[in-house]
Amino acid sequence: MANLAKKEARTILGIDPGTNYMGYGVIRTGGTKPELLALGVLDMKKGNDGYEKLKEIFRFTNDLIAQHHPTEFAIEAQFFGKNVQSMLKLGRAQGISIIAALENGLTVAEYAPLKIKQAITGNGMASKEQVAAMLKQYLHIKSEEMPDHLDATDAVAVALCHHFETNRKLPGTKNFKSWSDFARQNQSRVTKGRTRKETEN
């Protein structure tokens, strides 16, 4: 059993790409449930040079990898929108982060926004606020620790989605399709966790 737990221990870096704000989230798995290690954003809102932003994304992604030593890398896939220029910028930002991950020997997993929301909330059309609220409950994030920018919680959602998707394929593990699926199968644990958080607040 100890060897199995050690084998399943993973650190996942999730990225929500962008050229104004790049969200990041790091979780560790292998225990009874995932543990949040870090979350935040790279703020590039004031920058004007698009190429300098790409350089900063590459540097920052490398720094995150050096600091947290992830074993896996997950990123939100580019979605199709009406603004071609915005799509181009987003695609470049995503590609730069992927290159940094590959340069550090990490495998890359991409997830569409709808897939991520479905995995976390059970609803592919959920809002960013709903995703953040579900993560706060599931990972027991204190109110004062919640970030100002939802890009950060979006990145944590990417990492957690990757955990759910890959964990379902591991032998000897339960099949949780989403947090709501987990909640249905673990009602007593969820109730206890909610009571504890309400007491803290």
Question: Outline of this structure?
Answer:
The protein has 201 residues and is of the alpha/beta class.
Structural commentary:
With 201 residues, this protein is of the alpha/beta class. It has a single domain (2-200), classed as Ribonuclease H-like superfamily/Ribonuclease H (Nucleotidyltransferase, domain 5). The chain has eight helices and five strands. The protein has a five-stranded mixed β-sheet with strand order 3-2-1-4-5, with helices on both faces. It starts with a helix and ends with a helix. The relative contact order is 0.17.
Radius of gyration: 17 Å
Order of strands across the biggest sheet? 3-2-1-4-5
Structural category is: alpha/beta
* β-sheet strand percentage: 15-25%
